[in-house]
Every structure is written in structure tokens, then in C-alpha cells.
Known about the structure:
mainly beta, LPS-assembly protein LptD, 26-stranded antiparallel beta barrel, 62% strand, single chain, 738 residues, OstA-like_N, lipopolysaccharide transport protein A fold
Amino acid sequence: MKRIIRSISFLILLGLPLTCWSNESSAVKLESEQKSVIKPQKKPVLIEADRITGYYKQEIEATGDAMLHHGDKVLTADRMKYYQQTEDAEVEGNVRLERPTDILQGQQLEINLKTEVGHLTEPRYSMKEGKGRGAGDILLFEGKDNYRIKDTNYTACPEGNHDWYLRAKELEIDNKKEVGTARHVSVVFKDVPLLYSPWLDFSYSGKRKSGLLAPVAGYNVRTGFDVGLPVYLNIAPNIDATITPRIMTERGFLLSNEFRYIGNNNMNGHLQFDILPQDIDRNRTRWGILFTHTQNLGKGWQGFMNYNQVSDDRYFRELTPNLAQTSLVNLSQQGGVNYNGRLGTDGVLNFTGFAQRFQTIQDPFALIVSPYERLPHFAVNAAKYNVGGKLDFELQSSWTNFYHPTLVDGNRTIFYPSVSAPLRNEYGYITPKFGLHYTHYNLAAPVDTKGENVDRTVPIVSLDSGIAFDRQLNLGDRNIIQTLEPRLFYVYAPYRNQDYLPNFDSAVNDFSFAQMLTENKFSGGDRINDANRAVAALTSRFVDKDTGVEFLRLAVGQMVNFTDPRIQLPLPQVTSGRSDFIAAISGRLTQDISTDSNVQIDQSKGVIEKIRSGISYQPEPGKVLNFGYRFTRDVREQVDTSIEQVDTSMQWPIYGNLRGVTRVNYSLNDDKILAGLAGLEYNSCCWALRVVLQRLTTATQTTTTAFFLQLELKGLMGLGNNPLQVLQQTIPGYTSVH
């Protein structure tokens, strides 16, 4: 009780000079009415201790468990002396200063509470933002939010762990910017110096900041040893850039440039531009540009651009180990606008306009025909629902000018109005629909004997119906709702000869459970299938009653063609049988096992047409096993076009924090590995080491091998070539475990 009374009394004593000072300010104001002088008041100081002595308005000495409160700071020590006039403090013995941004400890402290200038001996410091901490010989306070430590070390490892640390002659901490700047610094890992720099700055809280990033290094059989030194530019809160000079022993000097921005109205963009001024292997300049931009223009309008181009067909295969890029065939170069709005109270209106061309990346051993360019394309889609309380009207229309340097080109107009009369209640629906699909071509050259202007009109009639049942189940401690949803779909479209029409953009949709319930098996607008078929489908969904999350879906479907389809594209398709059956399952079989599988059977021939199957076992983050199987039956008689592949991948603990990662995509028909990956990763509390070897088939007769090695010092930098993106792309369910 004595201690509390002393604390309150010294708060009053320390406050008296502040009151007098405030009155003096008032006097100044009265003497000069023309000039108002407002001086900031001192922050109150509260001192607590076992024993407090001092002189009124001069100094206070506190000993024994002493504590000083000043604003948002708390200072504790064995003994402290505070000078009221100068606001200096002298503190010694188990010094601890806690501030909003950090905690500082040491043996002797001298500091001015007003200017925050002073020094601390034998300092130990820890950051509240991030996990940075360290110690040194002496700490120099240099004003609010800034201090320097001499002969210091710094680490983000937890207390008692020094697996990695910075050893610096001097370290400056800026708590306002949350940045550390070290001079004459070495990066030490397991007591082995890895890197020396006369100067190094870093963000200890993870915030963005301009400066040099850690060097990256790797190996690829196409590029040789690859070393880069990234420079990060934090241009503005919404704009940044990364410029990386790279040296490749087999190719030469490459400059990689990445630019990102975001803005108001959901505007965002990303530019990647790489240039190799002189490829020492190809003896030419090589470059690549990838640019995307989207922006909300207001009032329902949006703008977009997607532009991609490379200097040559071998660019991706020779200069990047990224599977997503090496597998690119047609690089889109597209820009346009779209509009989404209301059409009255019960209608929607959509407009799209764009221009699009492609750069086709050719494999010299498997040449393909490049797609048509659309210069330009305009589409208007509209729907008006509940007209007269019974009918829904829809319109799909477009006008496109197609261009191709070697094939017949021209423009195409599509006008497809339809009307449906949906009948619905709480347990089911029946929707009859009638549409008239009209297409007009204005071609640059005559086709067949039809001339340059040709038309096609196809009426389409469909009937869609479904019923939904549900029941409640109890599976262990889970409350489940199971649905049973039978569906019957019929479509009729008469045969119209379309062999004389050009094919600008049509292809056969991959047969699936969703596709079998559509009117047209072709994408694009150049082919409308002749149809006289019915589909019977049954879906059962399992939904968690408490969360509403669907965790498992079972579906079967039977398609029956009452007449053989006559409209075919040049390549035979696997959906031409009189009767096709499909079954699918997706979701979680148990808490740890999930699957996504489907099979298609041609019952008229009694053969399996397609299998797409995948199953995954993931009991916890960092432990996943995946197995996939893909099969497509050969549909040509003279050329083997069948596909049969297995795909396995894994991330699994080996011992302690050591994990293995593997992935194999194997072609059973070709008896070869299409893609392979193997590696090890070790993840500790404050560092990670990853070693990965990857081999890819990048073209018909071309493969590439890449080697990744990265040491990640968590909270500071990553040294080497980061394989995380490769692991996440190739191993479904991969998790970087900290």
C-alpha cells in the first residue's frame, strides 16, 4: 500500500511544473494578442519503486524494482534517476525498455525522454513486428523510432536458436519504416559465413521496401548455370517493379523486368519483359513480353488487355523451366471492353467487343494450323425473364471478322433468339424451349457452289426437367443432408449440311457430365449438331447441414442418340455412338481422402471411351499422396491417337522435418516419362532448404532438365533458385510447412 501512495504522490509532484508552465504560456498570450503561442505539454511521468527520494522540481531517484511510465513507454530497472528540468534519465541494473514497436534490455541506460537520444550498454533487442532480435556492444538512440547498435548480430530465429544470423559492424533500426540497415555485414548459417556485403538493408516486418534482394542461382541444361541479382523498387504503395540482371553460362546476359500495379476501380496490371541482347548459342537477340490489364470503367463497363509475344518458337522451351509456359501453344494478343447491366427489372444485358490475334508457337516435328484472328468481335447477349408471368426470352448474337493468312476468311453474323416456358415448384421443374439459330457468312472467296454469301438456319427444340429429393443422415458426429436429383433432358435439331461452311472457331467439346446436358456438342458458331437424343441423369449430393458445404457428389448419366449424328468435324470423335454412359464422383470420401473421377462408356460397342481419374490422400498439411489415370480410346484406324497416362505425385515426411517430393507423369503408350520431379526439403522454425531436380518434355523430341537449390532464411531472404512455384504447380495439395 505504501508503494502505491508514493507513486501517486510523485505523479502529482511531477505534474506541478507542467501546470506552472501552462500558466506561463497563458501569460505570453495576454501580453501579445497579435501572436498566439501554443506550446506542447510535457507527457506525464509516473515512477514506482520500493524506495523513492529526490529534490522538488529537480531530480527523482528510485531504487528497488523501479518502474517509469512515460506515454506509451515502460522502463524498468534496479535503479533509476530522473531529472525533471532536462527530462534526462539515468538507469542501471537489469534495464528493460518496452515500446510499441520493440523491447530493449541492457545494463546501463542514459536517455532523454523528450528527444529520445541516449545510449544503452550490453543491449539485447527484439521486434514486435516480425520475429527479429539480437544483441550488441552498445545501442545508440538517435531520436524517435531510430537507433543504431554497434558490433551486433541479428536473427529471426526463436530465443535460444541461432541457426542463422547477421553479423554486422553496425546495424541501424528504423521503426517507422520497419527497416534494418546493416554495414560490413556477413550472413552466417550454422556458424559458416555464406555471404558478405559492405551494406545490406531489409524489412524485418515483411513490408515492401526498395533495395537489393538476395541473389538467385540455378542450373538448366539449356541455359547452363544461371545467376541473377534482383533489384526491387517500391515505387508507390500500389506500384512496384523488380529488375533482375541474369548471367547464363550457355546463353549470355539477360535482363528480366517485372512491373505490377493496382489502382482505383479495380484496376490492376502485370508486365513481364525479358530481353537477351545476344544469345551466344543462337547468335541473335531474344525477348519475351507478357502483359495483362483489367479495369472497371464504371456504370457496368470493364476494359481488359492480354498481350503475349516472344521472339521465336524456341523461347519458352530453351529459356524457362516453367511447365505452364513451356506448354503454351497459342499466345493471345487481345484487348477490348465488356458491359454488364440490367434490362428492366427482370432482365440482363451483356455486350463484349474485342480484337484478338495469336502467335502460334510451333513444334517443328508437330506443326499445327494457327487459329483465326478476330479483328474485331462484337457480341450482344440479352435475357428477359418472367414476361407475362410465364415466358423467358433470350438472345445470343455476334458479329466477327475472321482473318487468316492462308485459309478462307470473312465475317460471320450469328443471331440466336429463343423462348422458354419454365414451370417450377418447390421440388422440381419442367422447361420447354424453342430457338432459331441463324448464321450468315460474308466470305472473301466463294465456297463450294454456294458463292461468297451463305446462310444457315437451324431450329432447336429442347425439354429439360428435374426433381429434387432430400433426407437427413447422421454420419458419426456429422449432420448430413443427402439429395437425390433425377434429371431428364431431350434435344432435337434437324440435320443441315454444313460441310461447305468454313470452320473459323468450332471444335468438339470434351465429353463430360455437364456437356451431355447441353444443346450443342460443338463450341464456337460454325457447327450446329444434328440432334435427336435424350439424356437421363441422376445426381446425389452430400451436404454438411451445419456449414452448408458440399463434400461429396455422385452422378451417373445415360445418353441415347435415336439417330446417328451426321455433323462431324474432320477428325473422328469418340461421342458418335448411339448410346453413351458416363459416371462421375467428386469430393471427399473421408476426412483425408478426396477424388475426382469419371468414366465414359460407348454401350453400343461395349468399350470404354474415356477415363479421367484422380485420388488424393492428405491426412495433414505437408503430407499428400496423389494418383491419377488418364485414358482416351484410339478413334483412328491408321494412326495411333490413343492416350494412356499415369500421374503420381507426393510430398511426405522422411524423418523429422525432412520431407521428400516426387512427381512422375508417365505415358504407357510411348513408354516414357513426360514430366518428372524429385527433391528433398527441410523445414525448421527459421530456415528451409530445398533441393529439386525436374525433367520436362517441352516438345515432341525436346526435353529439358532444371536443378533448383534454395536456402530460405525466414524473415530475411532466400538464397538460390526458388522451386516453390514448380512444386505447387506439379504436386496438387503441396504445402510449405513452417
